[in-house]
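User: Predict the structure for this protein chain, please.
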Amino acid sequence: MDTEKDFAARMKTAIEPARAADDRALRNAFAARLKQVAARPEVVPIKFNGTNIEVRRGGTLLGAAMKNGVRLMHVCGARTLCATCRVVVESGEDNLTPMRGSEKFSLRWHLSVSPRTRLACQARVNGPVEVESVFPLCGELPNGLE
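Assistant: Here is the predicted structure, written as structure tokens:
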């Protein structure tokens, strides 16, 4: 009759051959990425207009775009008035803060009633998201300004 220790040893040897040769490499890569993420818990990866950027957790989409050189129109200076910083959330809408009344009003006033449309100046990031701007800026700014 087998003891629990013998049974556990036989189970372990039965499982070991099933592991692939690159299993250790995969585990090491996962551990390295986990350490990297754990070292910077306040940083969230997002995709803005197809560009991978990082944003501080709790920061706005507009702030993330500006800090990372992604050009995004924002005529009113992030005061929820013009809705020119509208973005369409492709994925991760649950990782944005809930829409406040002023944002809903501004979007309805500008006839953007899709639940996937947000104002980049108001939407704060809590986790990974992917967004596309409705009014992307094109061309060069005067005098070489960025």
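The CA atoms of residues 41 and 119 lie 25 Å apart.
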